[in-house]
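>> received
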Amino acid sequence: MLRILIVEDSRVNMLLTVTILERAGHQALQAETAAEGLSLARAHAPDLILMDIQLPDMDGLEATRLLREDSRTRDIPIIALTAFAMKGDAEVMRDAGCDAYITKPIRYEAFLQEVEAVVQEVRGKHPAP
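>> returned
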């Protein structure tokens, strides 16, 4: 079981993501704003963060940069969630500190496979003490 923080302002997307993750046996923490997400990430040190890019209070990429600058959260894998996947976006998201990105709408099996792959890859780079 993974503890996964979802930072998503769309209630429909949040409900879908939480449902998929919980049915797969994971625990979901929910934040509707970047500020709330930053606070929850620092307080709970989740295994993974799913970060919407377009949030009402702060761009998800800026929130990702702040997480990467914080010693408490810098090693948590972050997957960007975006409805807008254009050529060059992957590089922009990686430069901001995202480990991967998933386009919306989410496809159930591919989504769960990507979540697991990113967690395994990052755990390989930063083994638990």
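>> Strands lie at 3-7, 27-31, 48-52, 78-82, 100-103.
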